[in-house]
Amino acid sequence: MTRLFDEHIVRPVKYLNGSWDFMTDPKREGEEKQYFKNLPAKEKITVPGVWNTEKDLLKYEGLAWYSKKFYFEGGTLRLNFGAVLTEAKVWLDGNYLGYHYGGFTQFDFIVNGVEAGEHTLTLSVDNLFDLQSIPQKWVDWYHYGGIIRDVTAEKLCGITALFNRFEYELSDDLSSAKGSFTVEIFNAENTEVTDIIKIDIDGSEVCRDTLTLGAYERKEIKLSEIELKNIKLWNIDEPNLYDVKISTSSDDLYDRVGFRKVALENGMVTVNGKAIEIRGVNRHEEHPDWGFAFPQGLMRRDLDIIVDDLGCNSIRGSHYPNSKEFVDMLDERGILFWSEIPVWGVGFSQAALGDPVVVERGLEMHREMVKYYYNHPCIIFWGMHNEIKCDTPEGYEMSKLYYNYLKENGGNRLVTYAANRPMTDLCFEFCDIISTNLYFGWYGGGLSDWDKFASDFRKRREELGFSAKPVIMSEFGAAALYGYHTFDNVHWTEEYQANLMEHAIELFHRDDMFCGFFVWQFCDMRTCLEAGINRARGFNNKGIVNEYRKPKAAYFKIRELYHKYSKDEK
Predict the structure, then answer these.
(1) How many CA atoms lie within 13 A of 485 on its CB side?
(2) In a 3-state reduction of DSSP, which class is residue 245?
(3) What digits encode the pLDDT tens for the residues 208-249?
């Protein structure tokens, strides 16, 4: 998969990006007619990409087929998919390989004994949503469909390393670390193989173990414990990273890690013992010309705006795992990140929250997010869900299940969720930080309601026994149409949005109940909710820049405040 570094040097990797054969299947007859053996009608489409940016397919929601021919040298083949929206079935040369559900995480299939020559890879891709979907059909972003991240064909030889997780504990003085690597390994040979697996960190060998695997065996192993002294910590001022190389005699896997300690102290988030006021934005990885197939150059441009100019120290990846290369960039720049799964709860009925299929799908999305993003030091928050009905028994049980999983498996991170019913929420025991989404001054109420909420919720937090849990405003804002100005402070104007943001941010900053805030949202973005809840143009217009990253008045007001607060800390 595309990272900011090569994950493999020894292992042969072929990118299958570019032009693919494509056709829609609105009657859902492709499997019965065996499209996986030959597509009857072939247009061309680019991968990575979404079909909704193609002519006449903006609103197409349903099933589509992708097919591509490629050459493979023979042997054991690993097909690796960065992300497919939302359900995918995969065939190789007409033979069914398997199924994956969920649109924003990686998955793979390994095929043994593949002959040398030309082969055909075919996918059915489905973005139709129903009562068991995550997200649900009623969701405040666009139902894009397609293969949105890289596809690779990898030749595996001998014992190979597929994934890794580095777990460590820092010493009390944060100068050294003890830990171990857990590696998912696979024997690509049709015979038992014994080999040595080595771990190098910044060019120095730190671990060496001998492994024996049976023919085509795949499993996780925990390697010998290591100790590193005189480490350089990762933090927002100096984001020190360490290069990792995992190798056998026939394979390699490269990664990066950073050492930091995240905690809550005296009502603040601390990184390596230093208190940090969270000042950030919510960001959808979306663009009207690219959908969710977001180009790397635009990722860098977004960060130049958000970090270097606006002055944020944090980003919330609303509402799904972002691409790994973007999270790599956050690691390099020392930006704190909130990563979550796409349980956008306003669309979920109470019955859906209690549906075992929905609950298990969400749990599997958490497993995949933790698996593929565990080593990123920038991720300090795991987000369980957004705006579900946390005042119901079903919301309570879902929150309990996801919280316990993330606390047990998520590493040194804070677990939270975004609540939109803070005065009746039943689930605050299942979070490390209370996060809440409120829109006084937009969906009813006025600026004075922000002050009233702060007072009222402080009392409720104390009554619940959670005074030690700080509060993050995970969403707040108002919509503004880019270029709409008046002398009156009325809805939809840039002036109204700027005034609301200024009032709210200054309140959160001076009230010690709050440890941070994420503006909703960085940029205007396309939405399915075109009517009924103020979605002019078919966009959620609450961005402080428009969909093409043109700044509104609120952007400059927030930039002024964020830079002022940053100077006050120094």
Answers:
(1) 4
(2) strand
(3) 999 999 999 999 999 999 999 999 999 999 999 999 999 999
Query: How many angstroms separate the CA atoms of 179 and 224, rounded?
Result: 9
Burial class (CB in 10 A: 0-12, 13-18, 19+), 454: middle
CA distance 358 to 356: 5
Alpha helices, H only, 171-323 = 296-303
Count, residues in the chain: 570
Q: Which amino acid is at 451?
A: D
- Reading the block at residue 197, the tokens are 């697996």
Pairing of strands 434-437, 471-475: parallel
Asked if 324 and 148 touch (Cβ cutoff 8 Å), the reply is no
Beta strands in 387-426 (DSSP E): 414-419
How much of the chain is helix, strand and coil, in % rounded to 5?
Answer: 20, 35, 40
E strand or H helix at 247, and its extent? strand 242-247
- DSSP code for 305: I
Residues 241, 239: Cα–Cα separation, whole Å: 6
Contact 268, 120 (CB under 8 A): no
Q: Name the residue with tokens 């024996």.
A: 212
Phi-psi region of 534 (alpha: psi -120 to 50; beta: other; left: phi over 0): left
Please state, in angstroms and as integers, the Cα–Cα distance from residue 236 to each residue in 167, 274, 333, 472, following that order.
21, 10, 7, 19
Read off the tokens for 441. 């001054």
pTM over 0.85: yes
Distance CA 541, CA 526 (A): 9
Q: Residue 371: which H helix or E strand, with range?
A: helix 356-373
Q: Which residue has the tokens 């580095």?
A: 166
What are the tens digits of pLDDT across the range 446-492? 999 999 999 999 999 999 999 999 999 999 999 999 999 998 889 99
Angle at which helix 494-510 crosses helix 448-463, to 10 degrees, equals 30
In 3D, which of 202, 131, 129 has the Cα closest to residue 350? 131
- Residue pair 506/561 in contact (Cβ under 8 Å)? The answer is yes
- The answer to whether the CB of 523 falls within 8 A of the CB of 545 is yes
Q: State the amino acid at position 69 in one-letter form.
A: K
Question: Which residue from 365, 376, 272, 256 is spatially nearest to 319, judged by alpha carbons?
Answer: 365
Backbone angles phi, psi at 218, to 5 degrees: -130, 125
Residue type at 32 in one-letter notation: E
- Strand, helix or coil at 105? coil
Cβ-based neighbours of 72, under 8 Å, separated by 6 or more: 14, 114, 116, 117, 119, 153, 155
